[in-house]
Every structure is written in C-alpha cells, then in structure tokens.
Write a sequence for this structure.
C-alpha cells in the first residue's frame, strides 16, 4: 500500500527516467546520489512466504508491465516526449487564423480514425503550466508592490490590502485589449443589420424595380459576416485566456500544497469561531489544509475562471449596446420605445437578487463538497483500519448524510438557475409586447 502511493507521488514529481530506475525490478533506488536496492530497505524486503520472483512480479504489476527494452532505455535516458509537430496556430497565416482553418488537418484526421496522443501537436509555451504559473506569480508580486507603494505614500489609518481579483482583471484587460474593437465592430454590425433589414422589407413592400435590393442584401451579408467573426474570435481568445488563468491557479494550488505544513483532514477547514480575524490571518499560512478543500479548489472552483473570462467584457459592452439600441429605437418608433426599456430595467433588480442568491448557494455547496471529499479521502486513506474496526456502515452513513445536504443545496441552486433562465427568455417577449402596445395606443402603425 505504501509502495503504490509512494510510486504515484514520485511519478508526479520526479522525471520518468528516475522513476523508472526506482521501480524496474526493484533495483536502482537513488538516495543521496548513491544507488541502493529496494530490498535493502526494511519496508521493501521480501515478505514471509513471498519469493523474490513474486516480488518482481508485484513490482511489475504496479508499474503496469513496463519492461527494460533497448528502445525504452534510450527514451528514458534522453527523457524526451514523442516527437510532435509544431503547433498549427503558432505558424498559421492571417487568413487561416481569420477563418479558423488552422485546426482543419487535425479534424480531417479525426474523421478518418481515432485521434491518439501522438497526433496532437506541440503545446505552445504561452499555454503551458510553468509559463502561466510564472505569470501568475508576477502579477501577484506587482499587486503586492502596488499596495506597499500606496500604503507608504498615504498616511491612513486603514491600510489597503492586496486584491487578487483586481490583479487578475487588470492583467486580463492588458492582454486582451485587442478584442475590445471586435466587440465595438460586432455591436455596430448588429445594429446596422437591423436597420438594413428594415430598409430591405420596405424595398419588397414598395416593389420598385431597381438594384437597391442587391445592395441592401449585400450589406446584410457583410454585417452577418462581421458578427460571425467577432463572436467566434472573441469567444476563442476569452476562452483561451480563461484557460490560462485556470492553469495558473491550479499550478499555484499545487505549488502551495507542497509548501504547507500538512494537508490534514480537518472537516472544518481550519475554522475556529472563537478566534479573532487577526489570529486567523496570522495563522493562515501555517495551518493545515483539508484535502477535500484542495481537491475541490483544483477540480471544481477553478473552472469558474473560464466562465468569468468569457462574459467579463459584457459588463462594459452590454450597457453600450443597450444605449445604442435605445437611440435607434427612439429614432425609428419614437418615445414608445422608452416604455419597453422601463420594463426592461424593472427586471434588473430581480436579476441581481437571483445572482446574489445563486452565489450564496454555490458557496454553501462548495463548503459541503469539501466536507464530503474529506470524508471520502479519510475512508480511502484509512480503509484498513476502517475494515478491521468494522466502521464501514458508520462511514457510509456519514458520507450519505453529507451527500444529501449537498444535493439539497444543488437542487435549490438549480431551481434558481432555471428561474433565471426563464426570466432571461421571457424578458425579450415582454419588452417587445409592451413597446408595440404603447406604440399602437399612441396612434402608431
């Protein structure tokens, strides 16, 4: 049991060459620069009734049948990955990036057969975990320097504290400044497409025999092409940046977990209601972390960075689009269009309330998930003691109770999410209905 867990840990942290030397046939363990044998260690000596050959078979099963062939020895000695082709996005032309033609060879290969690991191209340095961890550390150090500089200049009683959210958002805006003109062009194209569509409908109503219809149709097609490119390119770059932030956060969690005093199994995550905020902050870097908390952070919570990166620009561009549509609507219909906007703004407080409630429920779900994962980790780590003591039913009941609490909160969050979706789709219909009713009531046609 110890050997299998140690093997998993070493295979993550050590190069494959050293791991192989540690495992193959139980020989070649590196310790302080000298080679020893596993059989010299008390924990790895032959068990009573187990012959040496059986030990070798046991080791070979743990390493999943790896053998010492000449080709594999050469691969291990060089410690290199299989040869991969250069990343197609890195060397793609402007037109290929514009129309997303660069991933076509891989997709064409996937239509013929199942894609394997060797078919994938080399990962770009900008998308690698070490690069993003270094960038993550850099922006955090810049935030610390900024806060220290402000606190040293201003004589204020309440010192400001560094904010990781601010550091990530500022870095995000600096890196993706070029997508802001895309959003502007996309918004202008959407408004222009609506205006051109109105002119095109008028053209068919009048039935005039001229070439204006072709021009209007060309304008509509052009606006649609701009919207298409803007949507997909903005989505691609935002998703990619969110993925990089997620990678950096996961790497930072792993780096921090290696420097913690221990990863404990305390169910309350180190919380103590009787301690003050100052003592909690002072002991935050020394306390042990729940294994469930670490696992939940690295597998579940970091996914929120991708969604946040996708929709963050709309915090600015949505009001801009709304104002542009309001101006165009008043120009075309009149003040009746304002009535629909008043109804639209009545839905905003409801949206804020639902968002706040959803965030509260998500926090509760995360805390309960940490507790459940911690219990499962305890059961797996102490399975021998649990079975010898006959505690299986007790652990099963505790885990089931926590899971029921978790499912209850997830169901509440899902109901709120469903209500939010219903309000989202209902808003357009209600606003349009109110707008046209007021327009007809005022004598419009």
């Amino acid at each position: 049991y110890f050997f299998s867990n140690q093997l998993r840990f070493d295979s993550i942290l050590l190069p494959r060459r050293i791991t192989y030397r540690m495992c193959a046939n139980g020989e070649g363990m590196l310790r302080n620069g000298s080679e020893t044998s596993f059989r010299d260690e008390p924990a790895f000596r032959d068990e009573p009734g187990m012959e040496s050959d059986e030990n070798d078979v046991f080791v070979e099963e743990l390493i999943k049948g790896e053998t010492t062939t000449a080709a594999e020895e050469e691969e291990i000695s060089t410690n290199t990955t299989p040869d991969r082709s250069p990343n197609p996005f890195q060397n793609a032309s402007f037109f290929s990036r514009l129309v997303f033609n660069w991933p076509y060879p891989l997709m064409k290969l996937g239509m013929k057969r199942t894609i394997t690991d060797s078919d994938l191209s080399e990962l770009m340095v900008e998308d690698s975990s070490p690069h993003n961890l270094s960038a993550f550390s850099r922006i955090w150090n810049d935030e610390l320097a900024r806060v220290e500089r402000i606190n040293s200049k201003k004589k204020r009683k309440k010192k400001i504290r560094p904010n990781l959210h601010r550091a990530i958002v500022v870095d995000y805006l600096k890196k993706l400044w070029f997508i802001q003109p895309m959003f502007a062009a996309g918004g202008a194209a959407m408004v222009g497409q609506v205006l051109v569509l109105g002119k095109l409908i008028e053209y068919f109503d009048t039935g005039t025999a001229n070439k204006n219809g072709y021009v209007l149709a060309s304008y509509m097609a052009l606006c649609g092409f701009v919207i298409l490119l803007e949507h997909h390119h903005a989505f691609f770059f935002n998703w990619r940046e969110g993925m990089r932030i997620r990678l950096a956060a996961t790497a930072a969690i792993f780096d921090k977990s290696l420097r913690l005093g221990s990863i404990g199994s305390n169910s309350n995550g180190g919380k103590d209601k009787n301690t003050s905020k100052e003592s909690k902050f002072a002991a935050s870097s020394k306390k042990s972390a729940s294994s469930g908390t670490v696992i939940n952070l690295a597998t579940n919570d970091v996914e929120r960075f991708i969604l946040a990166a996708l929709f963050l620009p709309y915090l600015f561009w949505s009001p801009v689009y709304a104002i542009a549509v309001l101006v165009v609507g008043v120009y075309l219909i009149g003040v009746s269009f304002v009535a629909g906007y008043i109804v639209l703004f009545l839905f905003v407080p409801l949206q804020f309330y639902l968002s706040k409630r959803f965030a509260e429920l998500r926090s509760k779900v995360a805390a309960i998930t940490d507790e459940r994962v911690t219990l499962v980790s305890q059961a797996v780590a102490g399975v021998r003691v649990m079975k010898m003591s006959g505690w299986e039913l007790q652990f099963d009941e505790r885990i089931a109770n926590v899971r029921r609490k978790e499912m209850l909160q997830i169901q509440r969050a899902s109901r709120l999410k469903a209500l939010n979706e219903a309000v989202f789709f209902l808003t357009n219909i209600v606003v349009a209905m109110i707008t046209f009713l007021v327009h007809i009531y005022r004598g419009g046609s």
The radius of gyration is 30 Å. The chain is about 70% helix and 0% strand.
